[in-house]
Design a protein that fits this description.
Growth Hormone, Chain: A, globular, 10 helices, 0% strand, mainly alpha
Length: 275
């Protein structure tokens, strides 16, 4: 969807004689459909539908992991965390900082790509393709966590994703039709990094604070992440109109990526609260 939608919307706008409103109409309809599906289908806990991880009953899962050969290679909490206890752990706030700053960097890259690429000399069709390529390549990052999440600590995977987004942001600034390898490498790095970070968030929350606090912590972090991402586009546009350049907002994005990288390295597994 993320790969095809920009090209579909670009085609629809061109067919409508350049009327950008048709693009927003398509987005609005898709959003309403998604909201209806979410209301009807999404549940907070698999147990409410009689489901369990890997299809195993809790007792069977505990029996399989009780021996040495069944021990997880990454941190998996056995403590029943509450939201109030989780809020007292530095790890939760490092996670919030990492998500907000890293995704700000991603949103600066992705929201400003069409205009920045055209400013650099790319035609609208190529700009739309590179934009959709970054989103499409995020699928690679999401598959990576499936293969590596059980053997490498999630915070290291997220930190690597933040590094990729930041490096992709640097290449995004340098992009040019005369150096096409940069034009293809920046969406690979940024898209892969975003996909990796995106899937790491629920994995890390589940590993650190368990299933009972999962929904509440996810709900707490979502507004912080959304505000950070929502600000990226307007801030970038405002600074561009003010200065005639994306340099200032790109510096902000690079700094945000570095902060996210460091914050995630500091997001160590929390110790169970003393009772």
């Amino acid at each position: 969807g993320g790969f095809l939608a920009p090209r579909l919307i670009n085609w629809a706008i061109l067919q409508a004689g350049g009327d950008w409103r048709i693009g927003w109409f398509i987005i609005a309809v898709a959003s309403v459909i998604g909201a209806v599906v979410a209301i009807l289908a999404v549940r907070n806990q698999p147990e409410s539908m009689g489901q369990h991880p890997d299809g195993l009953e809790p007792e069977a899962a505990r029996a399989m992991t009780s021996g040495d050969g069944g021990k997880a290679r990454t941190h998996r909490t056995t403590f029943n965390w509450t939201v109030s206890d989780a809020l007292k752990t530095p790890a939760l706030w490092f996670l919030m900082v990492a998500v907000a700053t890293t995704f700000f960097t991603w949103q600066v890259i992705i929201t400003q790509a069409p205009l920045h690429l055209q400013d650099r000399g790319f035609d609208p069709g190529t700009a739309a393709f590179l934009y959709s390529l970054a989103i499409g390549l995020s699928v690679m990052g999401r598959f990576a966590i499936a293969g590596l999440g059980d053997i490498i600590e999630t915070r290291y995977l997220f930190a690597f994703g933040a590094f990729c987004i930041t490096l992709g942001g640097v290449l995004f600034w340098l992009v040019s039709p005369d150096v096409m390898w940069i034009a293809y490498l920046y969406p690979l790095l940024a898209g892969f990094g975003f996909g990796l970070c995106y899937v790491c968030i629920p994995t890390l929350i589940g590993n650190y604070w368990g299933p009972y606090a999962f929904a509440a912590i996810s709900g707490l972090g979502a507004p912080i992440s959304m505000v950070s991402q929502a600000l990226a586009g307007p801030v970038a546009g405002f600074l561009y109109d003010l200065q005639g350049s994306y340099l200032t907002v790109m510096i902000m994005a690079w700094v945000g990526g570095v902060i996210g990288f460091v914050a995630m390295l500091l997001c160590r597994p929390p110790a169970p609260m003393q009772t």
